[in-house]
Amino acid sequence: MSDAPKNIVSPQTIEQVYKPMNRRTFLKGTAGAMVGMAGLVAALKPLLALEKGEISLDDLLQKHYRQLSPEDLQRIMTMLEKRCEKQYGVRPTIQDLKPMDGVQFGYALNLTRCVGCRKCAHACLAENNQSRDYDDDLSMSYIRVLEMNKGAINLETSTAYYDPELVPQKDKYYMPVQCHQCKDSPCTKVCPVQATWQEKDGIVVVDYNWCIGCRYCMAACPYDARRFNYQKPTIKPEAINRNQDYLSNRIRPKGVVEKCTFCLQRTRAGKYPACLEVCPTGARVFGNVLDPNSEINYILNNKRVYILKEDVGTLPRFYYYFDV
Amino acid sequence: MRDYLTFLWRVWRVSWQGSWKFYAWMIFLSVLVLVGVNAWARQFVQGLATTGMTDQVSWGAYIANFTFLVGVAAAAVMLVIPAYIYKKDYMHEVVLFGELMAIAAIVMCLLFVTVDLGHPERFHHMIPPFGIFNFPGSILSWDVIVLNGYLLLNLHIAGYMLYCRYRGTAPTKKFYIPFVFLSIAWAVSIHTVTAFLYVGLAGRAYWHHPLVPARFLASAFVAGPALMILAFQIIRRVMRYDIGDKPIFTMRMIMTVLLRPARPQRPGAVDLDGHCAGCHWAAVPGHAPEPPYRRAEHRLRDLFCGDLDREGHGADHPRLCAVAAGPDCGIPADPE
Amino acid sequence: MRMRSTKHGVPPSLSRACLSVLSLVACGMWLALAQEDTAAKPQLPQLPKVARPPAAQPQVGLATDAHLNKTPPRETKGLDLVKLGWTYNCMECHKLLKQPRWHYDRPMVEHQDVKLQHGNNRFCLNCHHPTNRNAFVDYDGSEIQEADVVLLCAKCHGTTYRDWQAGVHGRQNGYWNKEMGESTKLRCIQCHDPHHPAFQPMKPLPPLRYPPRAAGGSARSSGESGTHP
Lengths: 324, 336, 229
What we know:
The complex is a heterotrimer. Chain A is α+β, with helices and mostly antiparallel strands. Chain A has helices spanning 23-43, 57-61, 70-88, 119-128, 186-190, 216-220, 264-267, 274-278, 295-302; strands spanning 93-95, 105-110, 144-149, 172-177, 196-198, 204-206, 226-228, 243-245, 257-259, 284-288, 304-306, 318-322. The relative contact order of chain A is 0.18. Chain C is globular and about 60 Å long. The chains are: A alpha+beta, B mainly alpha, C mainly alpha. Chains A and C meet through helix 4, helix 8, strand 10 and helix 9 of A and strand 3 of C.
């Protein structure tokens, strides 16, 4: 090889390579294009299996939740109710509860009391209409109960798959992890389309009709609190909770991210979240942080509170505490 | 203008001409593409469950491929810099390949993101005025900007150079030299911003480190020229385009230099990471004071299996993780 | 504490007098003893004539939450009567029995299944009232009514009682916003068996299966092993 190639063999002008079109090449080209198009159509054939109305013009043109007028939102919620009835045979009541004034939610969990029975994780399913492949399918539950070795808070040695005969095990303690509704939430920051945001009462919500399913928020979340609908949600009609909210537990479309909202369909109506309702040992405490007499404030003022992964700087609204 | 349209038409026509080998190769590639399109169509109907990947692997596999290709695209500057800054004439013969490679890589990046979306039909949610573009809040939106900007820059430079060549005229400097220098800076920025996709996630301790962008660049500037060398070797064997040894030697030298900061660090080594292991690493939350290669296993799991899923399930796919992470993440695949 | 003073059933002086009377009639004329007892406490409720059907567990939480499993953790065999709402009248039998001489006297078969595992608290009469078995006993021997059982536990578990009062220890169900609805607060013995206050270990509900959702998708059958291979 010479040191300075002059590219003698390379084409220097287009005439060296360009052959003008004639009848023969035109026919050949047309035939090739036809074959190519046929191949493309054949390749795209699975798209025919899309359910009718699954992607409608209305859906594509729908605006972000916060830009919707109340009438539009009402119309959309009625449409969603109808769609749910058509697909699952159950007509839910979808409402849109707004955050209350002077309320910011806080949640505390007593690690001394938690026995790891997983009732919260299963109640979450019963309340929030997550997709389930079978009845006890916890994979989409918003709560992971971690079995931890006593002596340290070490996530590296924890497991969510524990299944002994009886809990609590002697040398273990249990730490349920769910969305911490961080004040400085990494998930809402990274969303490229602002499909997830923090409401006035501190709840981080997702607009399921706006999410593009990029899952960056899942990567950003330090608490593994977000779930992705890899397929169209499967849920038995009798398992559907009909008390639904647009931003929380309505049945999700496929391909969107969902998360714990502290059961805002309940908590914004004044009730306790489902996981607290079922906790047999009363390890969970929920309330309004802005109310000085609330139970959650009692904890924050009187107990030794631990924040999971505090060093990440997310400022959670979810606190762990011990009482000894 | 008319001349330009003729040019485009002829480029289009030329790109369909070739020997039977060319057609065989193109048909083979087309079949691959169609298989991919078919798989994507299925995925579009059934959801991402078609892939059968778990949360961590799904996101990790796509983003790792995406990052790798961003790196390849950014590595085009490894041809541009010798050609335009160090005025190596022989590099001018091949610099176009680098730019075309960058275009192809960026297009593949965008496709990777698209097939990874749960709702690709809602892509317009990112484009004002139809949607909301979360800029500058989301680093992903920065990435969209820099990637598309780099695509446009390279399309312009490569297109202009080809057009001049077609017309047989010397390119006017003011039409491309500013863009060339902009593209050099921009190439650094695409991979840096892509690195910040990871660095910005404080919840992922392994990624949350200020030197990740530097590491990304170093490894990309190794991986990119490596790919270019392979491409050059193939081109000069099967095509009528002569590429001398000199560009390849230059690429080789660049790689040799950059392998040092890009390779897995060793105990006591004073390089990019040996340095950081001693001083900065310990100061970053979530990082152990010991150098990270000792904790390679944990970190690997961290990388793709998340913090809450560390009871050893990640160990099922260490190879997958390592392969998916590629050279870009600088995983110590072989700690001594 | 304020509550306790208002709930004083019997003043301590009267209780002590009662005890001395009881010690006097030691040879055990059943009828006379019964009469004296009745005379001392004429306000005792009527004894049941027939066995009652077990009362339903008091509702925990809201009736609208039928889809949630809200069972409290208490699982005791022996003292289901307490769990079932305290419909029995203890004095039905105990008026016939003399006061036990020793703390651990249990001559009859009725309470043999009660295994007291309450730490240092080893004696029945630490909690149960010596003469009125329908009530509990305070420090000074006065009665604590069953409804105020929390005050009994507060005798020792002061900090827990304080937490409970604040709504932080134990279960609260219903409404967090007291303006929008009621909340129910369970009392100590609705969750804790007083004879074995530590919770019995329980069977955990089914675990998350590995691998999580995406792997396998709908093709995965429920018969698969639950543990990670």
